[in-house]
Amino acid sequence: MNESHSSSNRVAGEVGLRVRYAETDQMGVVYYSNFLVWFEIGRVELLRQLGFDYKTMEVDDDCFIPVVEVNCRYKSPARYDDELIVETRVTGVRGAVLKFRYRVVRVGDRQLLAEGETVHVVTDHTLTKRALPEKYAQALKGA
Amino acid sequence: MNESHSSSNRVAGEVGLRVRYAETDQMGVVYYSNFLVWFEIGRVELLRQLGFDYKTMEVDDDCFIPVVEVNCRYKSPARYDDELIVETRVTGVRGAVLKFRYRVVRVGDRQLLAEGETVHVVTDHTLTKRALPEKYAQALKGA
Amino acid sequence: MNESHSSSNRVAGEVGLRVRYAETDQMGVVYYSNFLVWFEIGRVELLRQLGFDYKTMEVDDDCFIPVVEVNCRYKSPARYDDELIVETRVTGVRGAVLKFRYRVVRVGDRQLLAEGETVHVVTDHTLTKRALPEKYAQALKGA
Amino acid sequence: MNESHSSSNRVAGEVGLRVRYAETDQMGVVYYSNFLVWFEIGRVELLRQLGFDYKTMEVDDDCFIPVVEVNCRYKSPARYDDELIVETRVTGVRGAVLKFRYRVVRVGDRQLLAEGETVHVVTDHTLTKRALPEKYAQALKGA
Question: Going by fewer Cβ within 10 Å, which terminus of chain B is more open, N or C?
Answer without folding.
Answer: N
